[in-house]
Amino acid sequence: MVCSVNINYAFVGSRVYVTIEKRDGMGLLTIKNISAHELESDVSELTEWFTRGDASRGGEGCGLGLAIVKDFVRLQKGSFNLEVDGNLFKTIITLPLA
Known about the structure:
Blueprint: E1 17-23, E2 26-34, H1 65-75, E3 79-85, E4 88-96
Antiparallel strand pairs: 1-2, 2-4, 3-4
């Protein structure tokens, strides 16, 4: 399997952890990493269109990535959740397998 993870906002030298599980007929994808900066936004706002986690960044991104993922997963009858603890950033995607 090939997995591409955008590391533009990850802490330099940190690792990205990816876990794929099958649970109760669902596929569960969890991605964790350490953010280069503590996120300033409320977690619930991070998946809104044009919201950026760090307002001080200039020139990079437009705040669409997480909103696109959330909508895509929803259209596939799945769920998309974020958890943030300081600079630890965790995404959890659950999709039906059949």
